Amino acid sequence: MNVPKPKDSVPGETPREFYGNELRRLREAAGLSQERLGELVFCSGGYIGMLEAATRKPQEDMSRRFGEILDTGGHFERLYPVATASRFAEYFTAAAELQAIAESICEYSPALVPGLLQAPGYARAVFESAQPLRSADDIESRVVQRMARARILTGPTAPLYWAVLDEAAIRRPVGGVAAMHELLAHLAGVVRNRRAVIQVMPFAAGGHAMLEGSICLMTFADAPPVAYIEGPHAGQLIDDPALVAKCSLSYDLVRAAALSPEASLALIEAAAEEYAHGHH
After folding, report:
1. Model-wide pTM > 0.85
2. Sheet (strand 104-109) strand order
3. What is the 3-state secondary structure (H, E, C) of 124-186?
4. Band of the pLDDT at 253, cuts 50, 70, 90?
5. Is the pLDDT of residue 11 over 60?
């Protein structure tokens, strides 16, 4: 076929967005729907849509298949390394976007209660500790945004949410006694309202499979699962199937070693009572 000449990138367009826009342009030029192209490369039409919208990272083997089916002369194989060399900051945005459309979210956190479970006082203290030179207005704006994002756990389209928290996240008095009481009461309410499954990894468990870091696993209705790992100033979205499988195994081992949901709720409520009486 005659391949339409690649367009120039638009100012401000990220490499991943350029890849997605090129995929849409060449797919439409070939007269293929997202569903039909998905069938030809052995994935769903929804996954093609995610690639075109730049919410999923391109895969090398799939880029090669796109090139063969759309007869692009290696266009997508050349774009692939550029589109996947994203800046770290982009991963945070991508992870948040994916959480909003995930069917299930499973998180393990060694020292921090995850953002989707935070209460305002705790979230404020987290931002103030991490970025002490930011203005009060900026901090408040971030708190509001985090609370708004947590609303994905409510409503008819809420994902199945499962969190394993290290006991350190329950015991460390981030923001002081009042903020921790608010946080732990909130966690107990989330569990009792059946909006999430929460387990605690007790200090007494000793070593376990996720000592080295935090992780967030996400599954989707019509796209492969992903894992997201992060540190203080960087994050990485992983969608290589072999690596995601290893991450999933580590998570399964962690929740098998953690306290049961019932025992975890009892620990959380007992800690909340201790904070209420100022014992921490």
Report:
1. no
2. 197-201, 160-166, 104-109, 215-219, 226-230, 235-238
3. HHHHHHHCCCCCHHHHHHHHHHHHHHHHHHCCCCCCEEEEEEEHHHHHCCCCCHHHHHHHHHH
4. very high
5. no
Q: In DSSP terms, which residues pair with 14 in a beta bridge?
A: none
Q: Residue 279, SS3?
A: coil
The 3-state DSSP class for residue 273 equals: helix
Q: Calculate the average pLDDT of the chain.
A: 88
Under the banding of pLDDT at 50, 70 and 90, the label for residue 212 is confident
Where does the pLDDT of residue 68 fall: very low under 50, low under 70, confident under 90, or very high at 90 and above?
A: very high
**Residue 224 DSSP class:** -
Contacts of 153 (CB under 8 A, 6+ apart): 116, 159, 161, 190, 195, 196
Residues 6+ positions from 218 with CB-CB distance below 8 Å: 98, 99, 102, 104, 105, 106, 225, 226, 227, 228
Residues with Cβ within 8 Å of residue 12, at least 6 apart in sequence: none
